[in-house]
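== Folding task for one protein ==

=== Format: two labelled lines per protein ===

==== Paired sequence and structure tokens ====
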Amino acid sequence: MSCYDRRDLGLLLLRLSTGGVLMAHGAQKLFGWFGGHGLEGTGQFMESVGYAPGKASATAAGLAETGGGALLAVGLATPAAGAAAAGAMVGASAVHAPNGFFAMDGGYEYAASLALAATGLAITGPGRLSLDHALGHVVDRGWMVPAALGVTAAATALVVGARNKRVRQGQQGEQQALFEEEEALFKE
């Protein structure tokens, strides 16, 4: 019989809290629970902030948050779960970054905190009070940590990069429209 120590309890509490928040956050997107807008509303929002197609982006983010959060909470496939959740939160951070750091100003504080907690769990592992431990760590091997984080970082960079390009193009289009309006005024 093994004796659990405070690290196991601490990791359990961190997994339950981080995973629970992520599950609720994702359920808002997927199902409209907890005051969320579901896939339709979230898809429209995602499209408006540059993630296209919106509904597919909402589905991917919702699954990464809900699935990653659930897996983190129970401590199963911790490297992949943490990486998926972190990737979704980095995508959210990109939307909020222009507003600065603090959440009260619409900044990325909340999303970044969840991303860092999920990444930390992916790296540290779930502890002994987890399904990964109970199953002999078959889906929580050391090599899985850099693989999961690397693949997620690459995919997130591509998705956020494409989103940022769309946003810049949209802003240039708005500036062009303003210039054209000013030009029309001068011709009158």
The helical segments are 6-31, 38-48, 54-74, 78-96, 109-124, 131-134, 144-187.
